[in-house]
Amino acid sequence: MIGPNGEFGLHAGDWVPLHSSIEGWVEAVALADHARGCARTTTIVTGNAVDDLDLKGFEPVPEVAGLADTWWRGPDSLIAVYRGEAELLNAPQCRTATIYGGLDKWGLRGLDT
């Protein structure tokens, strides 16, 4: 659903904005597709393990305009952290992070760098 300020999010009784713009959500979908195709490894963690991820040395990916769902770029990996659905359902066990590892410069940044 699109929120009152252009946010993209989930609505099912309550409202949880995932990205601060529709464009951010589109960027996140495109980044997930790109990362899946370039990563040497893909690891999924759930529940409390999401909060235990060490994001030291990672920077947020501003293009996704993340709110509840965010992306992080590290030296050779991308991490997508999905908290929005878990927040909406009041189900912390549904938090999920996908770690795309073994990326080179092309896999991390694409053609524009």
Explained architecture:
The chain has 113 residues and is α+β, with helices and mostly antiparallel strands. The protein has one domain (23-109). Helices cover 28% and strands 31% of the residues. The chain has helices at residues 22-38, 48-51, 84-89, 105-109, and strands at residues 8-12, 14-19, 41-46, 59-60, 69-73, 78-82, 96-101. It has a 5-stranded antiparallel β-sheet. The longest helix is centred in the N-terminal third of the chain and has 17 residues, at 22-38. The protein is globular. The model has no long low-confidence stretch (mean pLDDT 93).
Number of domains: 1
Q: Kindly report the average pLDDT value.
A: 93
Give the biggest beta sheet.
5 strands, antiparallel
Radius of gyration: 14 Å
Q: What's the number of helices?
A: 4
Helix content: 25-40%
Strand order of the largest sheet: 3-7-6-5-4
Strand content: 25-35%
N- to C-terminal separation?
32 Å
Total strands: 7
Give the helices and strands as they follow along the chain: EEHEHEEEHEH
Q: Which outline best applies? A: globular
> Which stretches are low in confidence, meaning pLDDT under 50 for 5 or more residues running?
none
Strand pairing plus helix content: what structural class? alpha+beta
